[in-house]
Amino acid sequence: MAKENTNRVDGQVRAGAIIQAHTIGQLNLTQQAPPAVPWQLPPELPHFADRTGEQEQVLAATSEAAATGGPLVVALSGMGGIGKTALGFRLARVLREHDRCPDGILHLDLDDLRRDGTVELADALGELTRGLDPDAALPPGYADRRRRYWTASQDKRLVLVLDNARSGAEVLPLLPSSAGGIVIVTSHGRLHDLDGTRAVELPLGPLGGEDATGLLRATVSDPRLAADPEAAAELARRCAGLPAALHVAGRWVSRYRNRELRRLIDELTVTLDREGVPVVEAVWDAAYAGLSPEAARLYRLLPHHPGPVVTDGAAAALLGGGVADAEGALEELDEAGLLLPRPDGRGLHDLIRGHASRRAALDPDAAEDVPAARRRLVRWYRRQATRADLVAAGPRLVVARPPEEEPGLAEAPDLSFASRLEALHWLEREHLALYGCVRIAYEDGLDADAVALCEPLWTHFLDHQHYADVIDSFGLGVASADRCEDPLAVVRMRCQLARPLWEQRRYAEAAEQLRVAVGRARLLGSTEPERKLRASAVEFRGKLASVQGDWAAAVPDFEAARAEHLAIGNTYGAMLQTYLLGRAALALGDPERAVALLTEAHRVATEDRRERMTSRTGFELATALRAAGRRAEAAPLYRAALDGARARKSATDELRVLDALADFHEEQGEAEQAAGYRAEAARLRG
After folding, report:
1. Residues 463-516: pLDDT tens digits?
2. Which candidate, 261, 199, 256, places its Cα nearest to that of 235?
3. What is the pTM of this model?
4. Most CB within 10 Å of its CB: which of 39, 70, 221, 519?
């Protein structure tokens, strides 16, 4: 009997091959090469600007590999053209440089696999699996492919870039099974249904001014950009921080090398307004096409909203419906990537505003819908600003005619203001929208509304001197008052316009406004509002004299105005004139009389709970006490005035008090305290 041949292998085999055979003639062993590490990124962009904060945030989030919990998801969201995909690719490269993905980088554009709006997930799983294992045999069904993908991706430290996701439901099935994986997802809107994932959300905004200009210069090398840096910055600004638009601008500069840069700015602006940004126009069109009818209508109307942030109430006014419908439409626009996230809300990007206007131009109902929406918006803002003004300034003389009833505003919500400071802060937050509504009202012939909006803007202006806006708006208020031939409004608006004019040292223009105002005021009747307004016009004439240094000429006007207010029992108006007379006495070298007058004004303002005037009368009283040698009494009044200015967020008043406190402590020989106040003032001035 032949001897049995046996082979035995003892121990653990770690590598190589084991051959078991009876007879071996010739043996050739070929070791199979491991699959190549996938690298599915396109060539790197030659220019990339900013986003360093986002890169640092992602590196920090991936600094410690998680043992459990699935892959880390980095969700980049923002409007089309904002640079989400470019940042996603940059993040993948940065992660590779920091050895976060030794097992490779995969990329998948979900729009390439979208059929009738739905991603073919089985196809997506197949592409990802083949990316990890090119020779993998793919089963036909979705569930089997998903398991095959999990097997291929287990224990892998890889990066997956998923472009153009529309929901978390498209992302979750494509996550690798390894906790060491990193998935970078780009989407137009935020993905709210990434349940159960470790996620870092990074909503992207436009590039800042310096970064935008830097990207423009990097995109095209042209001596004109260096020779005229202001024009280069303006060209970048017209692109509104949108990288796609900056690349378009770079091509324009490169194409028209013999044209003056400032001419190119105007030509490019016209082109962007008319045609948009070619690279992303189709993206915006697709996003618009997917909107519901109500969201699409709001999108077409939003270019008529003049502020940077669109609130639910303003959207409801535009639509002429309830807040619930407005909220839903805004959320839909946000998810479609057609709204820009801002620190205090959501609004339209400047170039998206152009796209929305182009879509509105194609709307057959725009001729009827737009004027009504603009009227509702103006009157909603008028209503809210009037409410804020009443809380912030208290009952006072206003000349606006009562508003007309506006159909469609019944369901738009009104705001409530719990405190004076809350009302003042709302006026500051919405001041651009309010100034814009004055212009809309004037353009649309809503003269009473234009005048009415200038009343709360006067309250806002006293603490926030946005001179270009306020002179423009009060000028429109004057024009509206003249056009509607309202005698009270004519006087009031001209007085309001005079102050920002003289504060900009446009004394002749201010004097002309007050000449007309005082002349018209003499023609008014004897009702209490008319007498108050007449006294106000005389007071303004006195103020103009005082700001030009002619206090002696100002005193008779202040005394005449005070006598008128006392005669009609207007305590607040009389207090204002007493305050002004106190300032005049101090300027004319009589600090004791100034102390007496300002003490009385400060008492009335405090008792009447007029916070702004309490601070201002306290500040002037402190200055008068200091001039009278009563320094100990001045210090607490200065500090109270500083607290009041800061509470109102009035930078102008805060600077005035800080400078006075610095001088005060310097006079006291307290150099350290003086230096501290000067440093605070320097920081505030920027």
Report:
1. 888 899 999 999 999 999 999 999 999 999 999 999 999 999 999 999 999 999
2. 261
3. 0.75
4. 70
